[in-house]
Amino acid sequence: MSATLFRHTLLALAMLTAGTQARTLEDWLPPTAQVAPVLQASPLIQSARARQEAQLQRARGIEAGGGEWAVRLNQQQRRVREPQERFAETTLALERPLRLWGKADMDARLAEQDREVARIGLADALHEASRTLLTQWFGALRARLDADNAERELQLARELDRQAQVRLRQGDVSQLDARLAKAELQRSEATSRLAQAELQRSIAQLQRLYPGLPQPRGPEDDVPTPALPAQPLEAALQDFLTHHHELNLLRAEARRQQQLAERLERDRWPDPTVGFYTARERAGSEQLAGVSVAVPLSGTYRESQARAALAEAHALAQQVQQLERQLTADFEARWQQLAQQAQALVALRAAAATQRLAADKSLTAYTLGEHSMTELIQNRRLANEQQLASQRLLLDSLHNQARIELDTHRLWDLDD
Fold it and tell me: Which of 362, 365, 387, 393 lies closest to 377, judged by CA?
């Protein structure tokens, strides 16, 4: 961010906070102590824990190896012509493949990497659930903002309609003005009902998806000012990339795939299967004991599997670089957007104050007969729209700031 833009941002923040006791961002969000148990108990996270357990068990199996003891039993009949005799013969063998050439150590490292992938996967699921909750929470805040604004507009419309009806009976206004005031009241009632319906839908969704969380509070005049984190952009970006679960998960999967490729390459060195056997021949007149060794011959299949795993490891490494570039661009854009939003908020608040003053003067002018009812209604509506626009921009800025705080683990840090 340029030095000029940074100075302008600081000036905008100073203008916004002057003379007010700004509330912190955490005051608008449920605390971690309330968010953590709600998310941990959600079906989404329970499913992620089950997937983690499955990954841990697979890692345990990889570390133990796929070789198992096998028992081989042969039962046969021997027939001899001279002299003519029959003998029952039995062979019993105990066999197991061996992991040689350092494969057991490689499997142990591969299993440990699987455990790391499982750990990061659960943390990523928790973080994504937190981001979803944050989005829905701010959606409910916007719905409450719209409902409160519609209610204020309705109260103004009712007062205007009441005054118009009184003055109509006194002969001070025309029938047209009274009807315009009544139409404005009816429009405001419809807007208010729709806004209340959207608010109830948002609150009901939050209560159903996140039972136990408090309801979002409505915006007030002492709302917090969107602010950039205290640290420089470069440090914040590095912090963001270090803690980003999706990126760390992809990195871990790339390392695992590289280890798997090395393990499959080592599989081209075949492992022998060693057995111990005992045999009873010629009805027990002969007893045999021995050792057996079977060695598979490596062919095209094992070579192709090793090369395919290596190619997949290279593909994952490229995906890590691409994702890192995308996340860097997104974070820098959000950082700069927050600075621009702070400056735009100053202008919008000034415009809202000016428009509100114009609406008040329009009421005076209408009383003196200098403005029509249409002009009065339009000026009031513009004043409400300007105020609503500034409040919506404030919520957008707070949402942007909250996402940055969440992604850098300064908000709702739920990592184990």
Answer: 362
d(CA 332, CA 237): 8
Residue-wise pLDDT tens digits, 341-362: 888 888 888 888 888 888 777 7
- The DSSP H or E segment spanning 127 is helix 103-170
Name the residue among 9, 30, 45 with its Cα closest to residue 214.
30
Mean of all residue pLDDT scores within the chain: 82
User: Which tokens is 122 given?
Assistant: 């659960």
How many angstroms separate the CA atoms of 56 and 384, rounded?
Answer: 57
Give the pLDDT of residue 329: 94
Sign of CA dihedral 317, 321, 326, 328: positive
Dihedral sign of CA atoms 51, 53, 58, 62 in order: positive
| Cα–Cα dist 297/116, whole Å | 34
Q: To the nearest whole percent, how much of the chain has pLDDT over 70?
A: 89
Per the listing, tokens 């109830």 go with 200
- How far is it, in rounded angstroms, from Cα 164 to Cα 177? 7
Which tens digits make up the pLDDT trace of 288-323? 888 888 888 877 888 888 899 999 999 999 999 999
